[in-house]
Amino acid sequence: AQKITQTQPGMFVQEKEAVTLDCTYDTSDPSYGLFWYKQPSSGEMIFLIYQGSYDQQNATEGRYSLNFQKARKSANLVISASQLGDSAMYFCAMRERVGTASKLTFGTGTRLQVTL
Amino acid sequence: GAGVSQSPSNKVTEKGKDVELRCDPISGHTALYWYRQRLGQGLEFLIYFQGNSAPDKSGLPSDRFSAERTGESVSTLTIQRTQQEDSAVYLCASSSQRDTQYFGPGTRLTVL
Predict the structure, then answer these.
(1) With an 8 Å Cβ cutoff, are A44 and B104 in contact?
(2) Minimal CA–CA distance to B21: which of B85, B63, B72, B74?
(3) Which end of chain A has fewer CB within 10 Å, C or N?
């Protein structure tokens, strides 16, 4: 079974509009973390935002916010006031404890295209 | 430098040759990870190092793949007898224990 599901292979948004990228997850570990990474065409993975499973409030980092709905096991990324430079692949990832290790499992990604 | 560095940035090799990919983690980060990303796909976990503990090799796809790490510094991922299906971007990440993983720029491997 997939642990991280991103159902939107591609999304378009107009500049200055907000966009939501979906992510659902599956885990039996009560302690986990959820991450979003941006991967522009240059290929590097850029950390955007983190949400811990015990965090009471939704995480925010500038124009990025994470809509964390624990009961629904969803962790959607909201980008406000989109900019052309936001065009990239976006990956949702979950960190689980495996013994003493801490592994990240990635979704298949969503390609976001910001248009004028 | 302040971030994770990887070398080479690009590597083209012939089928059957061995390759070594290098990763320099962020100073002070105890954990180091290797991932593989095939074209148009997400990241596959390969191997994880945490301090002096035995590495977690559960993601290595075959015995042609191996990795070493010297203490809490440089790591080398070795692929022996490369195959065309090994062509991918190999990404390294480091973190403080259980903290956010920060990625290097990757090594693009092409096996002809």
Answers:
(1) yes
(2) B74
(3) N
pLDDT beneath 50: ranges in chain A: none
Among chain A residues, the shortest Cα distance to B107 is held by A43
Question: What percentage of chain B reaches a pLDDT higher than 90?
Answer: 71
pLDDT at A2: 62
Contact status of A7 with chain B (Cβ, < 8 Å): no
Length of chain A measured in residues = 116
B42/B6 Cα distance (integer angstroms): 19
The mean pLDDT value for B49-68 works out to: 90
- Cross-chain residue pair A45–B31, CB shorter than 8 Å: no
Residue B96 to chain A, least CA–CA distance (Å)? 11
Distance from CA of B81 to the nearest CA of A (A): 26
Cβ contact A35:B100 at 8 Å: yes
B112, pLDDT greater than 90: yes
